[in-house]
Amino acid sequence: MTLVHNWHLGRRMEYPYFESRPKHQFAAVFNINRCIACQTCTMACKSTWTFNKGQEFMWWNNVETKPYGGYPQSWDVKTLRLIDNPDNVWYTDDKDKEASPYGTGAPYGTYEGDTIFEAAKKKNINQWAVGYIPEDKEWRSPNFGEDTAKSSNQPGEYSTLPEHSRWFFYIQRICNHCTYPGCLAACPRKAIYKRKEDGIVLIDQKRCRGYRKCVEQCPYKKPMYRGLTRVSEKCIACYPRIEGRDPLTEGKPMETRCMSACVGQIRLQGFLDDNPKNPITWLVRHHKIALPLYPQFGTEPNIYYIPPRWAPRAYLRQMFGPGVDEAIEKFMVPSRELLAVMSLFRMAQTIIFEYKIEEGPKVYETTIHGKKFEMYNDTVIGFDADGKEVVRTTIEEPVHVRPDKHSNSI
Amino acid sequence: MKKFYRLLRSYGVALLGCLFLSATLCVAEEAEGVKGMAEEEFTPTKEVLNVKFVEFDCPKDVTVCSLEKALKDAEGVQVKLQKQDKAFPNGGGSVNAAEVKAVHDGTAIYFQVSWDDATKNAQAIATQEFRDGVALMFPLGKVVVSTDEKFSPRMGDRQKPVNLWHWKADWEADMVASGGIEECPVRYPNMHDDFSTNPHSVNYHKGLMQSAAVLAGGVSAHNLLSMPNRGRTVEDLNAEGFGTLTSQDHQDVNACSKYENSKWTVIFYRLLNSNDPLDVQFVPGESTYFNMAVWNGDKEDRNGQKNISTQWHPLALERIAWQ
Ligand code: SF4
Ligand code: SF4
Fold first, then answer.
1. For ligand 1, mutation pick of A299, A300, A305 (most atoms within 8 Å of CB)
2. Alpha-helix residue ranges (DSSP H) falling in chain B
3. Which residues of A touch B28 (CB under 8 A)?
4. Mean pLDDT over each residue of chain B, to the nearest integer
5. CA distance A18 to chain B (A)
6. Is B221 on the interface with A (CB under 8 A)?
7. Residue B6, pLDDT score
8. What are the residue boundaries of the structural domains of chain B, listed by start?
9. A194–B87: do the CB atoms touch at under 8 Å?
């Protein structure tokens, strides 16, 4: 193994290959607070990539209900058990962060447990990572446990904020196009590769021999075995769209099907890069409001989540790491910039590479959880890969009055 | 040798994969995950597999039974098998021996391999199910194996390519399946299937049927594992070390098999001279080496998780006695 830097964990970790980051990394922010589990994303993916023979059980995009749901069933609980670190210990003191040789390279603190790679080494199992293959019956119910709440309430007892005692939330899942993919590490044939240009992780359909090591060692269980072709398949991040090959965006990078279709407008996709005015980079690295899913697995996943503000913090910390409290606090009383950047969600299919805010007048003021909140009607502008304006919107949604002659039309 | 590289290069997609991979994540040079090999692994076994010359009329319908007589007097060698413990992922260890016999008739060579296996696994459709399999391996070209002339008995090495014949239990079932490959409803008889292949059925949708191949990555990439109507149960491959296994464009080997009394018997057969520079060639009166591996599907064996022999076995072809 080699030592690579995993910034989610705030430390170096062991991985079979050297660290090599793409110029810009395919990434997305999902705002869990807004998802209505309509599964439009799921169907957009299904009808594009997995409607075919032998793919009946495949849902490259799925939305499951936490805490009980999971596709495949209990995937996260089972993998958490394998890394053998039930307490999910992190060092999060400021002094630990300062002491970190990486400085801002440890935004959430330092993870002290074992990743899937380190657990395999420690257990001496002669595998690159710990893992398991979910059986066919575990893949059968994509939405098992839907809308089932966990509750400690007595009948007639109500939940109150900031943490509900009767709760559930939806989690939207696609392949994380990880920086250190477990699937890629596991493949003895090197049939899985991570593209230098955008960090998308793909399975070479010619080299794959259906060994299912990726199915076994991806902690998120996103590669799937296709019984018909005897090889494995996974989310391809709609790469023809990312490459701008869909005529609709005239050669410009375009968001994936699941993102574009999102009815709840919870999704924004783009790339993580070094530009602080890139909306994804700003939300993830600068404002730290969107967090990785199970960072302790150690693959540095690239789908980031704004955690649900009503769910118990301990559960969320296990799922998204110690950055949860800060993220929820910032989300509940959003800053002027956050409101602007969040207004970009689902305003265009063309990928936004940079944003600009033009200041507007103050339109509203209140107190939320004892904190002052002010709203300004700023204008936010989004630019595509070539710096061309593709979005212009204001914080206050414009009011449109339907003219009389259309009053009865749909 | 050049040809082998050319062949590798012609696998556009595959190579692209490798390129991207080496560009993004450089392989840690055989550091961990591949442990060193002991000296004795470079010494071939003492026991020689004598490939007798037997005159017989090759039956039209090649089966284990129809070849029984031809192989009756062949001397067998016992091959010791063990867990694969050098390259990650390690695995195997459930099968510890196999018997190999061989004869030739001046035109073709027949290898019979038999081993005990309490479970027959002849399908790989469900996510958690793996096939039984067996492979023979031969050095490519004329080589001498010794501690001075190191030639890895484990998948060959760089500049030391091997030719592998991999028999797969499920390919046998594919041979007789309608459509030339067993499809998911064979495993799940009551499953819903949007893809009625009966053109007279009310569910038949021509557009969908035509898209099936396009949206089956393995089929559009011409991955032999995904292709229907392969017409054989053995895959003809090359390798130059761990992780380099590559299917050939030109498939020359076939086999028949029998599973009886908790025992697999597989007979591989191929022309002595296949006319393919990527294949091992057999010359009566000359000798070479072979090695082998067995996969037990029930134990989730696949890839390097297999039962292997850690030494080459000499193999000598008897001269043709012309009458
Ligand atoms: S989520 Fe799984 S399949 Fe996707 S890149 Fe990460 S390890 Fe691979
Ligand atoms: S389309 Fe959007 S709102 Fe609907 S389930 Fe998917 S992520 Fe949630």
1. A299
2. 2-10, 12-24, 68-71, 169-176, 184-187, 206-214, 217-220
3. 1-2, 16-18
4. 86
5. 6
6. yes
7. 43
8. 38-181+233-317, 191-227
9. no
Which residue in chain B has the smallest CA separation from A136? B127
Backbone φ and ψ of A250, nearest 5°: 50, 50
The mean pLDDT of B301-323, rounded to a whole number, is: 92
Q: Which CATH class is domain A2-148+163-253?
A: alpha beta
User: Is B191–A18 a contact, with Cβ atoms under 8 angstroms apart?
Assistant: no
- Has residue A197 got a pLDDT over 90? yes
- Going by CATH, does the domain composed of B38-181+233-317 fall within 2.60.40.1190? yes
Among A288-302, B19-33, B213-227, whose mean pLDDT is lowest? B19-33
Task: Give the number of whichever ligand sits closest to the CA of residue A221.
Answer: 1
pLDDT in tens, B120-171: 999 999 999 999 999 999 999 999 898 888 899 999 998 999 999 999 999 9
Structural tokens at position A214: 């990726």
Taking CB atoms and an 8 Å limit, are A52 and B216 in contact across chains? yes
- Residue A312 phi, psi (nearest 5): -55, 135
Q: What residue spans of A70-127 are helical by DSSP H?
A: 75-83, 94-99, 116-123
ipTM attached to this prediction = 0.90
Strand bridging mode A291-292 / B234-239: unpaired
Beta-strand runs (E) in A36-94 = 62-66, 90-91
B215 touches chain A (CB under 8 A): yes
Interface test with A, best of B24, B174, B197 (most A CBs within 10 A): B24
Q: Which residues in chain B (153-172) have CB-CB distances under 8 A to chain A?
A: 170
Strands (DSSP E) contained in A284-410 are: 291-292, 303-306, 354-358, 362-368, 371-376, 379-383, 389-394
The 8-class DSSP code of residue A259 comes to H
CB A270 within 8 A of CB A27: yes
Averaged confidence pLDDT in chain A:
93
Verify whether the Cβ–Cβ distance A204 to B221 is below 8 Å.
Answer: yes
What is the pTM assigned to this prediction?
A: 0.91
Ligand 2 atom at minimum distance from A36 CA: 3
